[in-house]
Amino acid sequence: MDKVTAVPALADGRRPRADRARQVADLLRGEITHGRFGGGRLPLEAALAREFGTSRNTVRDALDLLRDEGLIERCPGVGTTVSGERYPHGLHRLLGLAEVLHEHGEVTNEVRAMSLIEPPPAVSGRLGLAAGESVVYVERLRRLNGLPLSLDLTYLVRDVGEPLFDADLEHNDIFVLLERIAGQQLGLAELSLEAVNADAHTAAVLGAPRGAALLMIERLAHLADGRPVDLEFIRFRGDRLTMRGHLRRSLNDSMEKTWP
Amino acid sequence: MDKVTAVPALADGRRPRADRARQVADLLRGEITHGRFGGGRLPLEAALAREFGTSRNTVRDALDLLRDEGLIERCPGVGTTVSGERYPHGLHRLLGLAEVLHEHGEVTNEVRAMSLIEPPPAVSGRLGLAAGESVVYVERLRRLNGLPLSLDLTYLVRDVGEPLFDADLEHNDIFVLLERIAGQQLGLAELSLEAVNADAHTAAVLGAPRGAALLMIERLAHLADGRPVDLEFIRFRGDRLTMRGHLRRSLNDSMEKTWP
């Protein structure tokens, strides 16, 4: 492979244009989500072609990819504008949605279901409950400034969950309410995170196209004393959320010891 | 809302069947990814209906959802079997793919492009380079046991990137090679994570259906001395990977101080 002379970034004509377009799209996506253009307008195609050292056709294909992701809009005669804001959600700390997004607007929760149920073993097992112990099930559609952001299915141990029947779930994170009820902070949460396509019904609930990419999170939160109390299955609209965090190469000793 | 008597888990007939099916699907997904069934067979529909306290029709819809995610296969007369293994990728520590997945098989990397390039400002800026400084661009299709897992676009600062032209990239993580070249460990990485739908060309490269949900990761890795050296854009097939980690409610003081 030729490494003698550096070529303008993406000008390598031996590579398929689709590969170069993906490369430009990724860099532009980063620029957009890091706020370079604010909520505003992108440079003209010709300027972007110069900036990325590639052809206008490649730039156009890259913009098409980002439009298909819902990140920008392209309007003939007007140009390219940033359309879909992606809200940052920290991966560094356990926070409720309203706590995370308070700078971005108001989170409201539509309670779609709430009842005391006899949980199946898949729930009892994770929450450390004996067979026959009831849990509180809460299903919420969560909106930011009126736009659907996530669909959350939550199982709560009975003693901290039952007081929620009398709480204002529409305007409060369950985390904050739980801590008030339990008289202690939450501690650790186990998290798993996947990308899945929205089935037809979920897509309709979230106001997204069928098949839209969702961030699917399973989260088991413990109180500070170690007791698991809150098992959640969360579907975030992929076009409205970016998870952000930091990773270290070496595990901090104290962290390693406190993690189970 | 009725909370007086606990009802069998998902038997609440006032809710749409699609909502109950999603609920069963999430719990079964958790059971599958936590290994309850190994690589094997799920119980019969009737048994699952009893276990989840719901109708066979709801169970059938739930299994359809998981089949559409590529997690199970359903064969008349044979039953339901786990088909797609999702490999766990730790969110607690910065690791290369082969380091993460060594228990699960062999990672091989097909180098699709590798060259010295003049990077656009979007790259120079993140890597802290002056205009005109070259970087090494590497594009790899990464496979686990021969199956496509991710497509990685990587920009490396020249002094640590250029020796990679003579390295065995096919069988080694770039992280491990970088540390050998730099004579020091990697330190911190900034990470952002989104769910996106695969465009047609990316889908073809990854052997996934068009529109398949992908985990899109942007990662900027620094050497232990703080210098940013490695900017990556990674697309993981959503059906082959689960990110796993832990979050704490309270930030560890020492962590807060060392994070930028």
From TrEMBL, chains A, B:
**Limits of the HTH gntR-type domain:** 18-85
Q: Does the keyword Protease apply?
A: no
In which domain of life is the source organism classified?
Bacteria
Note the CDD domains from the entry.
WHTH_GntR (cd07377)
GO annotation terms (biological process): negative regulation of DNA-templated transcription
Q: Which UniProt keywords apply?
A: DNA-binding, Transcription, Transcription regulation
Q: Name one GO molecular function term.
A: DNA-binding transcription factor activity
SMART domains from the UniProt entry: HTH_GNTR, UTRA
The keyword DNA-binding is annotated on this UniProt entry: yes
PANTHER family given in the database record:
GNTR-FAMILY TRANSCRIPTIONAL REGULATOR, MANNOSYL-D-GLYCERATE TRANSPORT/METABOLISM SYSTEM REPRESSOR MNGR-RELATED
Q: What is this protein called?
A: Transcriptional regulator, GntR family
Q: Which organism is it from?
A: Streptosporangium subroseum
